[in-house]
Amino acid sequence: MSGTSKPGQRVTPAGAPGGMQLFDRDGSRKYLTVAERARFLRAAEQAPREARTLCMTLAWSGCRLSEALALTADRVDLAGGVLVFATLKKRQDGIYRAVPVPPSLLEALDLVHGIREAQRRRGRGSAVRLWPWSRMTGWRAVHAVMVAASLSGPAASPKGLRHAFGVAAVSSGIPLNMVQKWLGHAQLSTTAIYADAVGAEEQDIARKMWG
Question: Coiled coil located at which positions (predicted)?
Answer without folding.
Answer: none
